[in-house]
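In full, the data.
>
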Amino acid sequence: MKKDICAYTYEQLQAEIQAMGEQKFRAKQIYEWLHVRLAEDFSEMTNLSRELRARLAEAYEILPVVLLEKRESRLDGTCKCLFRLWDGNVVESVWMRYSYGNSVCISSQAGCRMGCRFCASGIGGLERSLSPSEMLGQVYRLQRIMGERVSNVVVMGTGEPLDNYGNLLTFLHILTGEHGLHISQRSVTVSTCGIVPRIYDLAGEHLQITLAISLHGATQEKRKELMPVANAYGLEDLLSACDAYFAETGRRITFEYSLIRGVNDTEDDARELIRILGPRNCHLNLIPVNAVKEYNLKQPDRKNAQNFKNKLEKYGINVTLRREMGADIDGACGQLRRSYVQTRIEEAEI
């Protein structure tokens, strides 16, 4: 079985190439082809001998991340892509243009087992976790498709990144390493629904990434209604882990909060958010929930969402109300993948 060459860190690739009897500088050339020039085939590596290219092709592979579908919003230029992996699994990624640069949101798993009550990603459960190269491949393919450089990467698509912890770490080191795209760690965000032990592990890595916590409820009871993970890790334990992360890294936490009409946008919810977040150096990102047909949840109108934000700001909470992007192209996490998978199931039943 061939080895996944894009999953090697720079140091690991050096060891591999030297074990082949090649000089160390060849590893630097190959790594540059893979992670800077974004080569998709060994034949592109024209500064290597034909013999070496043939030996690489015999022992290694560059796993394909193949574009199946591309949707571009006419509202804001957001581009959503559906990719097929080597085994037929599909994942989705999003390209977003901001004034500060281009941001991509990638998936860390095919499917998800967290089962959050408002998210399309978990419908159908988890197929498998992605390798580091498959996470990188989404970034690289989007950059090639759009013809522009990526400046920010968000691991907030389908899947729970901390449920794929080892591969996530390798991905982060390759993405931000000086020999690859060398994206600043401060320009990378990793989102988690709150796997407490892994938050402590990530704190110990002393990375400078932003950690985003999917909060969505200001009390343990409300979180349990919306997020099954809360049955394993209580809110107070989660907040303690966030405090430890801030203490270890100096990086403030971002809390993500999907606003759901009549569920978590009440006066009591605002009061509880002020209580738990007021003493903390953090940022709160309010996200009007995206409609998913399998769930009967609705977002508050813009005026009520703004009023909720104003209440929090009045008590010193650092808060933003996210601008909805890609609304006309199934912009919410998991929607495009879910639509594709459901269509394949229906076709198979005919």
